[in-house]
Amino acid sequence: MERSDRSQASDGRGSRKPPLAPGLHIVSTPIGNMRDITLRALDVLQAADLIACEDTRVFAKLASHYGISAPTIAYSDATQEAAEPRILRALGDSKRVALVSDAGTPLVSDPGYRLVREALSRGHLVTAAPGPSAVPMALALSGLPMDRFFFGGFLPSRPAERRRAIAEAAAIPATLIFFEAPHRLAASLADLSDLLGDRAAAVARELTKLFEEVRRASLGELAAHYAREAEVKGEIAIVIGPPSGAPAPAADVLDAALRLAMAGASVKDAAAEVAARFGLKRREVYARALALKREGAS
Asked: Are 281 and 271 in contact (CB under 8 A)?
């Protein structure tokens, strides 16, 4: 008897590929090495009616390499207002739309959340073809605990905001991971070392690419190393070990640190910075900071 799935396309490996369902397909693409794309991702991209790309010029290289011919539309922070209605119309017409970012898994520090939310609200299928991401790869290569981690995306570019973000993450009982731009790496490592102490850490750069590098050391050593580097290139992830649970500082040490911090920052920001440095509860440090301020005013 003839098989009922004879009309389905073959994947060239002795099995049949099911047809791609209408809906939004979130597709992971390589973070560097072109061969890291999955077979399923290729199936989706080759069958899609429309591909929403963070940058169509970047995706064109992957499309050319693998013979992907579907029309593309730019979907980024700058273009989403104009692109989103067209994508939603395609979904409303039962089209198969793929969403990709420039590299790795969409929505991870990349645009796409708004589109996914809107597609779900309209009852469209939303599914994903999983694949590469710099976050789990950097964690795996760091040599640091992976049982619990916190991904903080890109650290803020402004120093005061960056230090505030680091202070807020300091007490999280997990391995921390942040993305960073090459020209800000040295400054961010200096702030991380200052606020988090000498935790074990790793800087992962150019993952899966020809010049892949993972440098493992304490935050202080990494800060010193990259302060001497004239030029750093590539995509970068910073991985930091969890807090060690060091003993609380003596009262006079805490007071001295608070007075010094309050000389150049608000009471709230100074308390957050000192709490992060010593691994203390911000509420308690803030109360002590207010007391010191009142003493100084009397």
From this structure: no
Check residue 186 and give its pLDDT: 96
pLDDT tens digits along 259-292: 988 988 899 988 888 887 777 778 889 999 999 9
Tokens 């067209």 — which residue?
Answer: 86
Indicate the angle between helix axes 185-196 and 159-169, nearest 10 degrees. 40
In sequence order, which residues have a C-beta less than 8 Å from that of residue 1 and are 6 or more positions away?
A: none
As a whole number of angstroms, the distance between CA 274 and CA 245 comes to 15
Report d(CA 29, CA 257) in Å as an integer. 47
CA atoms within 13 A on the CB side of 102: 10
Q: Is the Cβ–Cβ distance between 70 and 51 less than 8 Å? A: yes
Residues found in the chain = 298
Distance CA 155, CA 195 (A): 14
* Residue ranges in the chain assigned as alpha helix (H): 39-47, 56-66, 80-92, 113-121, 134-142, 159-169, 185-196, 219-228, 251-262, 267-278, 282-297
**What is the spatial distance between Cα 189 and Cα 170, in angstroms, rounded to a whole number?**
14
3-state helix vs strand vs coil in the chain, percent to 5: 45, 20, 40
| pLDDT tens per residue across span 188-215 | 999 999 999 889 999 999 999 999 999 9
Give the integer Cα–Cα distance in Å for 100 and 105. 7
Q: pTM (2 decimals)?
A: 0.78
Give, as one character, the DSSP assignment of residue 35: G
293: tokens are 């301020």
Residue 153, CA distances (Å) to 15, 31, 140, 218 in order: 40, 16, 17, 21
Who's near 78: CB < 8 A, 6+ residues apart?
A: none
Instruction: Using the structure block, give the residue that is written with the tokens 């074990």.
Output: 200
